[in-house]
Amino acid sequence: MILVTGATGFIGRSLMPCLEREGMIARAYEGRMNDPLNLRKELEGITTIVHLAGTEARGRDRLLHHVDVDGTERLVEEARRADVQRIIFVSRLGADPASMHALLQAKGQAERLIQRSGIPYTILRSATLYGRNDRFFEIIVGLAAWTWPFVWLPGGGNMGMQPLWVEDFVRCLVQAISRPDLINKIVSVAGSEQLPYATLVQQLLRVAGYRRIPLPVPMLLFRPLTPMLFNWWYWPAISRYFMDRFFVPEIADHDAVYRQFGFKPARIRDTISYLRRSRLGLRIFRR
Ligand SMILES: NC(=O)c1ccc[n+]([C@@H]2O[C@H](COP(=O)([O-])OP(=O)(O)OC[C@H]3O[C@@H](n4cnc5c(N)ncnc54)[C@H](OP(=O)(O)O)[C@@H]3O)[C@@H](O)[C@H]2O)c1
């Protein structure tokens, strides 16, 4: 029996039907991560945990520590008590407990807790994922709708990106659950295309039907702007940690998924027809 935390989130919404299609018995964790009594109840009879619960979308450092780090610690304690046989944890490329970026630091700390738990684990470190209702491509296009006639390119748009389609990522997750060779391993995954942010944005805007003039914006300007913006935006459509990827490249080997999971991730241009819809500008006001 598999327990999925964060099953209602972006990844969870693709994962749950996929598990069902594969004939795996899974249920969504109900309740908050920091509630040991509830964790204990929910973990009864569970052999595998897929741990997706996280708060990066909220963009608050305090929540990251409370849920992503302390919540993982509670989960690991209760999982040990419940004799859980496997934890699959979704982390980020660049995760490091010593990182100066709050999200990558929290992911690094959570990874370390899981590695030291004594419970067999698999950690999937992923690049940022995209798909319908993402907080990545839809937000880039949604923001461009408001910055007419320009599209902003942080740092000139030279930073390399290697986004991965969420459905492909979920295939990796499902495989990881049943693969003994991935026990106690950290596996990095990313899409099959590495391209500069500026090129990626052009591709997205073309599909969405927007024409914009690229406007390079120095990173120095974003540093003071980001906290100002997120101090009043309570439920931001875009994570405050979005900017991290312009400082720490989210790059893995271009054939990482193929080597580990035996299939080639979809090409971006074949999986972004969901951007071809009207009123994407309003997307930035939705959670
Ligand atoms: N999306 C990506 O591109 C990406 C890439 C690499 C790694 N990751 C990591 O993968 C995980 C899942 O990502 P996602 O994009 O699916 O995130 P998401 O859409 O923001 O979903 C987060 C999930 O966590 C749950 N959650 C938040 N606080 C909780 C708490 N205190 N107790 C219990 N559940 C709580 C949410 O439930 P409620 O809505 O009920 O609060 C939601 O189901 C996160 O840890 C994220 O950092 C994501």
Can you offer a commentary on this structure?
This protein has 287 residues and is of the alpha/beta class. It has one domain (2-285): 3-Layer(aba) Sandwich (Rossmann fold), CATH 3.40.50.720. The chain is built from nine helices and twelve strands. The chain has helices at residues 10-21, 36-42, 61-81, 102-115, 137-146, 166-177, 197-208, 219-232, 256-261; strands at residues 2-5, 26-28, 48-51, 86-92, 121-126, 129-130, 150-154, 160-161, 164-165, 185-189, 195-196, 213-217. The chain has a six-stranded parallel sheet, sandwiched between helices. The protein has a two-stranded parallel ribbon with strand order 6-9. Strands 7-12 form a two-stranded parallel ribbon. Helix 3 (61-81) runs parallel beside helix 4 and helix 5 packs across helix 7. The radius of gyration is 19 Å and the shape is globular. The two termini are 31 Å apart. The model has no long low-confidence stretch (mean pLDDT 94). It binds NADP nicotinamide-adenine-dinucleotide phosphate (NAP).
What is the topological layout?
Elements: E1 2-5, H1 10-21, E2 26-28, H2 36-42, E3 48-51, H3 61-81, E4 86-92, H4 102-115, E5 121-126, E6 129-130, H5 137-146, E7 150-154, E8 160-161, E9 164-165, H6 166-177, E10 185-189, E11 195-196, H7 197-208, E12 213-217, H8 219-232, H9 256-261
Parallel strand pairs: 1-2, 1-3, 3-4, 4-5, 5-10, 6-9, 7-12
Antiparallel strand pairs: 8-11
This protein binds NADP nicotinamide-adenine-dinucleotide phosphate.
